[in-house]
Amino acid sequence: MVTGIEIAALALAVVFLLGAARIVQAVRPLLVNAVVGLLVFLVAEWLGVGVQIDWLTLVIVAIGGLPGAILVVLLSVLDVAFVPAVVAALA
Fold this sequence. Notes:
Structural class: mainly alpha
Number of strands: 0
Shape: rod-shaped
Largest sheet: none
Radius of gyration: 22 Å
């Protein structure tokens, strides 16, 4: 026999799963943009353009997608921002 507590637990689990599905659907485009941006950064690194990857660049790429990644690479090439730090070797 099914009790009221079991029905409430099942209803709570269904509500939790529906909420989790909405969160995943909202975050999926940002994750796809971030992955595409990181691939652009890898291609830029392969071509010899260094880009500093930190939380700000990831936010710009996650929100802006491919145009955001191209903007970050362009700003890095022009030495405006996102230029990787070069540590001088002490001899």
